[in-house]
């Protein structure tokens, strides 16, 4: 399906919906094409050449918004989906909310710079399978690695088209390349997993994909001989992957979807200190070459640099047009979430972070869903390492760390310089002053 055909379906969908008497309509088309390979113990466990189409259609009738998903891009399916959406909307019309609709034309994107995020990987099916097998086979030879849960590799091209009845149409082409590996080390009942991955929109920045197998092996081996820690209150060092997850809970708490429903522990907290005075959180959605970069959000609103935390103070919520209207505020261009988040802080050498801990724990893996965004309570199962007198002593397992997110944020002692750039939140290790540890 070429570009002209897609634009025809977009235009037809909008015109058909408006003829049905809706107030507004928006269309979001996504097309994915790629290769997905899963190799397990030297054999192909799963292989898929994918080409998926999906079209999301939203209609607005008297302040009621109804979303429908159409899996087939053809006239018959589009008409059927819009008809169903209109019936549901007419049965659920709401008068209590004002101005629930599309973003005003004045805040829709009009500039679409090349963000350098479309770089197809010139690899065929046989080469993808060979690379996956090679990565797994090379690391299974490492001493004390006793098994594998496989290597997964995918490379995908995506075309996104968003349009609405206010006359907006925006297109975004991107690529996403991903390789992961899970290995097992140990003996008898004492088996431990190690996982790692690499990703990018441009394979030229992934020169040695086999390195993720080596990293996964080292992680698995490092956990052999783990014990349970003693109960107590102590500093907790989150590695970058988990520090990113911790900051993602902050973004959930300032998301308009949680705020307008009064389901966030940061409701009505604008202007309050949430983090230390040396800590700021900024968003740069127009960064060149970053996977999550975009010139418009999921509602067509132009994206811009946002500052959410400045010198520890919460100065902005994260709002889509829909949630902003519900709260009587303005969109921050964040329908679909935050893009390219950076922590502005005094960075500490990673080695110094460990050296300055007399008695604490480095957490390397977390389990469970024990995070309550309504009140901020935090309790997770964990795996990690005991740190004594500035040195990593031994691996730990089967313990829980607990606190409250509000308390954890304000008690961040340091941010490491070992920044992980792989995802939308770019951050190094985070050292929290004190959490409760139990096993």
From TrEMBL:
GO cellular component: cytosol
Segments forming domain Metalloprotease TldD/E central: 118-197
InterPro entries, per the entry: Metalloprtase-TldD/E_C, Metalloprtase-TldD/E_cen_dom, PmbA, TldD/PmbA_N, TldD/PmbA_sf
MF-aspect GO terms: metallopeptidase activity
Domain Metalloprotease TldD/E C-terminal: 232-438
Highest taxon listed in the record's lineage: Bacteria
GO biological process: proteolysis
Pfam families according to UniProt: PmbA_TldD_2nd (PF19290), PmbA_TldD_3rd (PF19289)
PANTHER family, sorted: METALLOPROTEASE PMBA (PTHR43421)
Protein name: Protein PmbA
Gene source species: Candidatus Johnevansia muelleri
